[in-house]
Design a protein that fits this description.
The complex is a heterodimer of chains A (about 675) and B (about 325). Chain A is of the alpha+beta class and about 675 residues long. Chain A has 12 helices and 36 strands. The two termini of chain A are about 40 Å apart. With about 325 residues, chain B is α/β, with parallel strands linked by helices. In chain B, the strands form 3 sheets. Chain B has a 6-stranded mixed β-sheet with strand order 5-4-3-6-7-10, with helices on both faces. A two-stranded antiparallel sheet of chain B has the order 1-2. Chain B has a two-stranded antiparallel sheet with strand order 8-9. In chain B, strand 8 and strand 9 (about 255-260) form a beta hairpin. The chains are: A alpha+beta (about 675), B alpha/beta (about 325).
Chain lengths: ~675, ~325
Amino acid sequence: MTPITLLGLPAGQLFAVLGAGAALLTVLYVLKQQRRRVEVPFARLWQQVLRQSDATSLWRKLLRWLSLLIQLVLLALLVTALGDPRLGRGKAGRSLVLLIDASASMQAVLPAAAGPAGLTRLGRAKEQARALIAGLSGDDLAVVVALDGQPAPQGGLSYDERELIAQVDAVTARDTPADLQAALLLAEALLAGRENPTVILFSDGGFEEGALSGAPPGLQVRFQPVTTETGPAVGAAGNAAITAFSVRRYRRNRLSYEVLISLGWFPAAGPGGERQKVVLELVQEGETVDVQELELAPGVQEERLYPNLSGAGVRLEARLRLPGGAGDLLPLDDRAYAVLPERKRQRVLIVTRGNLFLEGALLAAGAGEENHLAIDKVTPAAYDAERAARYDVVVFDAFTPPVAPDAHALYLDPQRDGPFAIETDLKRPLITDAESAHPVLRWVSLGDVNMTRSSVFKLAPGDRALASMLKQPLIVAREQVGPGGANRRSVAVGFDLRQSDLPLRVAFPVLLMNSMDWFAGDVDDDLGSYRTGRTWRVPLAAARGKGARGGATEALQLTQADLTLPGGEVVPVPVHEGHALYYGQRVGFYNLRPAGLAAPLQWAANLADVTESTAALRPTLRLGGATLSPPDASQRAIRRELWPYLLLLALSILALEWWSYHRRWTV
Amino acid sequence: MDTQASSQKATQAGFDQEFLKKLEYLHIVAKKVFAGRSRADRRTRRAGAGIEFADHRDYSAGDDLRYLDWAVYGRMNRLLLRQFEQEEDLHIYLLIDTSTSMRLGATAGQPLLTPGPDGRVAKLGYAAQVAAALAYVGLSNLDRVALYSFADGLREQLPSARGKGRIFKVFEFLAELTPAGQTDLLASVREFVQRIKRRGVAIVISDFYDHAGYEEGLNLLRYHRFEPAAIQIIDPREARPTLRGDIEIIDMETGELRPVTLSAALCAAYEREHAAYCQALCSFCTARGVGYIRADTDQPFDELVLRALRQGGFVR
């Protein structure tokens, strides 16, 4: 027998309401009813009539109690309806997660023969999901999950067809790759402990091989391909895509950029086939600056470089099209965007008695009239704190001022009583630990550096040990508020360059360049553009430009900023430790305007995902080595919600009572 | 001054000039209708000073010797006294029921003749209009008209008077009627016949809702050689009730309570019962030569009076 469960008010409350209502009704019936008094001139006539009527008084008394019984039944029906009773699930009932692929490739338009004009793969998948929901059996419990970079359920598990259809309608396409494994883990969590856990995947099947490694144990996965009536839908001849659009600075001149564009041609019929002609345009601030006609080999990515670009904040857009106006499968990846990041010249003051290693390395790092570093040199005797404050970076070589300058600083072999406290000295130390993830030590290897001696620093709050020997810090990075209120960064190297072989290594100029970049606040990751489907961590300090005092501090104090999305919508985004956090879902240009900071920050986002650009349309899918079978067709059962039937019954009883009253049967 | 005060009171009660005009019209119409057979006088068999021979009777000592029929004495040797029909005035007695049941249809604080929201007057108001009309016709015919109100016994009375000029006294009397008490027709009639020695037409204007029955009262009038007539005042609302649902009916006169759930079927049964009651009264009157008129208060009173006059037995 199918059990009944209550999803509305709990049974205890229902009984309380029923008891109170029944008691009230009974009291109203038992209490003598105050009747309206009507004067009649001659009651004797009425008595004669009523004498005949009294013959049926027993029936009338019964009618009275019957009326009470009907009221109690109506009350019971209404109270039960409040409990939202549902027919329980039989053993055949499934617990379903309808996984609808909303990744970028699902925006591919199906051919006209496959349905209405402009119908996308996602549109077809949603149609299929609706049809499946309409065919769910009475015992099937389901929830819809949108499968994109961050899979998320569109509502709760429900038996209600309308609720599930609404969940399907809420699924929208994202410009992100799909994270199938995360979605399967989510489905496993959603269906944990439920009968017959089943995932039905509505997708074009465009997943990386790594994502198809397998499904969580106990989870049955079915695959519903995006098909037409005659079989798998076949779109345009293929998809031409921009798979990468990157900007990078030159190592020597950090004020100039080069742009890398990666292109690919992915035939719909799969690998192989003929080369495809494409036209690539590069647009800078709305002006077309370059047009190239290329021929792409199928399945092979080709790269194009645009060197020596300059200009901070310039918007770049790459456009790819097929000759003759032909359309490809996925228009989304036919455009890519980038913004050349802002970068100012850094003024560097070296305080030294003379160090060719240092000066040479700085020259190699970009010093010179045309480059981004402008270097001045003074002796320790001529050092002046006021002058130092006019520079962006001060490098102290074997000299330590008693007070740190109001600028970023690099200390080489600092002395005692300086800004960095020295705990002890080590002779011939070896660097055993290096924090290579720190921007200063990126691409820097210190594993076999030799030195005669080194100071061991005592870490202060905010200090990070970049290199140490058995937990004894030898190189330390510090970030603190300077005398002028601005955020100031400094790096202290505990040994003298002249008593070490570090200057003879490639690591040294790289260390210097990294330090200069870190002081400037630049991180070369995703320079100018980000990839969708990831959480971006955008530094806000860049919004003020280098050298602007106070900008970093203000950014650190912010908790929220307004982000203008590519579509023009403005959303608030959280700011944490001077970085705006946002999960990117759309390609295009983004504009961040942090409150209190004058200049907005711009960047671009691109799909940059070969798997999505391949736009594969698979009729079958293999997961964990096994081919996924299509979902079962189910027979429609009665509605599982009982409250409409209870209300209908109550209304029927009321109608019957009304009819009998007017037929004078019950009066 | 007296007449002026009476007129003023009567006007306040609704017996205004308009009403008077209607009565005058009734009088004229009545004259035309009954022309040739209607006279202002009426003969009785009382031996009196009339000129038309009526009968003989034995002489007894003390009789006026002028009326001895000497011719009969010559032929039959018997002393017989000639009797003549004596002409005398007709006495009309209007007995108006003022029991509580006659209050039906009255608007609180308003004179009896003031129509309610539905355009109808109270039963007692209607009875007063009918009584006024009959009295006017009677007074105009130079009959002697007296009015009595009764409920559980005789209450107010307006002694016999004649002549149209007395109509304002009639109005004043009628205007001061107030419904109260329980109907006891027998007790009222008994008191009436004991008080009134002059026989005449006794017109009972009532709803005849007497818990003890109306038969004995009407019979008593007959037994005392009055010529009774009955005008039954009925309010259509009591004849055809439209009430529905759970109510408690209360008798206006006895105060008796009775809970009842009124349905259309029950109301229809009551309607039949009420019609049977009225029919029983009608049959009772017809069988005994008592004039009977049913007066529904939604019927204009002047039409009713004309009907009553045509039907006869009321006023000639």
